[in-house]
Amino acid sequence: MIAALMKYWPMALVVLNAVTAWAAWSMRQFARSEVQKIVAEATAVLQARDREISDIVHEHGERIIKAEGQITEIRSDILDLPTKADLARVEGEVKAVGREVTSTNAGVQRIEGFFLAKGVERP
Fold first, then answer.
1. Range of the domain at 104
2. How many domains does the chain have?
3. What is the pLDDT of residues 20-69, one digit of tens each?
């Protein structure tokens, strides 16, 4: 029996190598399909997250553009505000008008006093 085995051992080795190669190839195919599934799932998750981030960035971009527009409007409004010199000029004019009112009031009081002294009553 050992003599028969020794005679056919190269053929048994070829068959064993073929079975081993087939098993290795099958495991490689199985591993490749499993890896492809895992990669596809991971890619899907990453793509979904990428879309979420893109939406968030787009929203922030719109908010920044809106804020820039508001800042431009505020700057325009600030440029239209009166300066300290303008307010000082207006304050001087108000004080001048106040002095004129005081002097006019004194004149009106004198005229009223004159009419009252003459006996003229207010209607």
1. 83-123
2. 1
3. 999 999 999 999 999 999 999 999 999 999 999 999 999 999 999 999 99
